[in-house]
């Protein structure tokens, strides 16, 4: 089995690569990543020399490059993590979100059609369902919830999902889609809530909480997400959507206070700042379908997972300090310049 993992130098993609190499040592894993600001080769350093792993620098928007790659490599499956993923950036500059998240996905599916594939899996998000009110805790997103997006990021992910469904219906492409809640864990880029707050708390800088901090997210430890995708690839039904999440809802303020408490830092570091435009109030996943059909259950509760995550950031300070200092970007410039292709 040869699997192409796009966006594998980012947070979830890299964790997925580690998971798959561990669970399926007989599989070949090829990581394709454009190494944008969010991609980090240092993350993949410890698997770079594995015989069944290969890293390729390349852009999913580049049709010629992608078609050449598919022709050469003969992939069995594609798992598409590659995306612009940060809501705040999508509010500042939406264009690249449409290019990568929608058009890039289309290029990959066109290559899948041309060269044949057993499965194209689209890694999507619960944000395509819009948001839920704060005062109705029983409401949750199911796979039947209508698509109603709030940010350019979620609109681009929803557009890609529709396109994936269209490729299934029109061209019979064997696709699956997963829509997961907010992930946290090792190797998350320190612009997202949890790693940002950990790094700021350690530096004893102000922790910027949007609005009143009452927005709610449903947190999933990244390894549980990886396991769910592995199950969908092997046991999921073509053409189906699977929600992934595990009833671990917390308000942003609760998350930030937990981090401060774990690090023994004062709550006076919390600073309420201007709210995010269009800020989604609450996300909550109903995981009944994946639980009943594929026997998936989250294994790590938030209270455990946040401790593990904080420990990881304490033990791996060099990884995120290099990002904050921008050193890793200089390194790529030296390694690749603007070239695409295999490093070895
Ligand atoms: P990330 O930003 O950490 O990683 C994205 C990766 O994609 C980076 O390595 C980047 O270099 C690469 N990339 C960006 N544009 C590219 C392009 N044009 N060609 C090739 N590679 C490109 O994101 P993440 O948090 O790991 O998210 C991965 C996927 O999971 C995304 O599709 C995201 O929408 C989805 N998702 C994320 C979460 C979450 O909480 N982080 C939750 C649900 C779904
Ligand atoms: P984020 O990690 O950007 O994920 P998403 O927007 O995809 O849910 O943000 C998580 C929540 O934390 C969201 O409600 C916005 C909030 N937030 C802050 O309050 N301050 C911050 O500095 C950031 C980055 C996020």
UniProtKB/TrEMBL annotation:
Its cofactor is NAD(+). It comes from the Bacteria. Keywords: Lyase, NAD. The keyword Lyase applies. Its EC number is 4.2.1.46. It catalyses: dTDP-alpha-D-glucose = dTDP-4-dehydro-6-deoxy-alpha-D-glucose + H2O. It is an enzyme of class 4 (lyase). GO terms for molecular function: dTDP-glucose 4,6-dehydratase activity. The keyword Nuclease does not apply. Gene3D superfamilies: NAD(P)-binding Rossmann-like Domain, UDP-galactose 4-epimerase, domain 1. Residues 4-309 form the NAD(P)-binding domain. GO terms for biological process: nucleotide-sugar metabolic process. PANTHER family: DTDP-D-GLUCOSE 4,6-DEHYDRATASE-RELATED (PTHR43000). Belongs to the NAD(P)-dependent epimerase/dehydratase family. dTDP-glucose dehydratase subfamily. This is dTDP-glucose 4,6-dehydratase.
